[in-house]
Amino acid sequence: MGKGERPEHTAPPEIFxxxxxxxxxxxxxxxxxxxxxxxxxxxxxxxxPPGGPPRLLLDIGCGSxxxxxxxxxAGHAWVxxxxxxxxxxxxxxREVEGDVLLSDMGQGVPLRAGAFDGAIxxxxxxxxxxxxxxxxDPRRRLRRFFQTLYACLARGARAVLQVYPENxxxxxxxxxxxxxxxxxxGLVVDYPxxxxxxxxxxxxxVGTGGAAPAGREGDPDADEEGGGPGxxxxxxxxxxxxxxxKRRGGPGGGGGGGGKxxxxxxxxxxxxxxxxxxxxxxxKYTARKRRRLI
Amino acid sequence: xxxxxxxxxxxxxxxxxxxxPLKIEAEEVVEREADFDPDxxxxxxxxxxxxxxxxxxxxxxxAEGLPDAVPEGALxxxxxxxxxxxxxxxxxxxxxxxxCPETGRRFIVSKGIPNMLLNEDEV
Lengths: 294, 123
Ligand SMILES: C[S@@+](CC[C@H](N)C(=O)[O-])C[C@H]1O[C@@H](n2cnc3c(N)ncnc32)[C@H](O)[C@@H]1O
Fold this sequence. Notes:
Chain A: It is found in: Cytoplasm; Nucleus. Chain A is of the alpha/beta class. Helix content of chain A is about 30%, strand content about 15%.
């Protein structure tokens, strides 16, 4: 998603992310590493108190589970939702740890109040700024999304949404919609002076009158753990405002077959690794048995 | 779909006041091992709606060892924690439906994925 046409302008998300795109997306090693590092940064901005138990997190626009896997790696439990059946099928085939829901965030998140310890969204919410049907009003859909997101979070929880706004007006529209339903916080911009590395995160808080934290500055490549040359006190570049008042049948998907054994799976994973594809590390759960109860 | 997720799901159709808990109609249920983590179980317990969890566990056939009311101290007991862990995280609804208690609207679960998409007139 660099130069060129923005995917939101080409087709609705559930069409754009079809089977082909879902597969390409999920096997693209560059994509995998970008989404993983965006998720790591989102987790950092979630600012969960360190050393606590694993948390229950929501991943909005979870897609095929690249962002979710980073949550799993950080030790958290998660529930994902996405509007693309093809992306979710890939997630299920890849045996992600989180459960996934087929759901349109613009219709509101289908969750009860107050239970989630936090929410992240990686490269998804800008899709809401487009009207894909005549019945779609982006402002209404944004409002509904933020209202229900706010409601499903526990007090003191945060939502960190990494977005690709098309322009300043769109960024404003998203921030404005979030503030209006009661979130505090704002937009954090990492590496505002680099066209390549510049990234936007909406950092939203429930029930704490906080401002958004600072974005990262300096040299994006040197800046692994905030330690780059420019890593002094970095600044928020844009509007931080305070508020007033594991799966499926046989691995490889396709269903059918079933009953592939562990050795088969390990061999297949090894083959993928040799091709340079990212493959989940083997664990005692690899190809674990699924026992049918009902 | 695990019962952990079921415990968070609600029907949010326009005008619905009591969209929780969704009633489970189970067609296929499978079991998958998950890491046993008492810290997570203790963290999540107070967030759960216990009655809804029990009802779900009964629908999935994994309510054994789960009391109607959880006595004080149960979260320190291995036997309870194991039963809780199993029902919360290891039993999955693969095929079936979730039914809104207020409207009777059915949400289909296929390949473990609940379809929560609403029709235009439900938003
Ligand atoms: C670039 S992908 C990111 C997926 C995943 N978060 C990751 O990091 O790999 C964007 C995702 O947003 C989803 N999406 C777009 N509009 C959506 C909507 N209205 N509701 C839910 N998901 C949506 C798309 O289907 C797609 O899977």
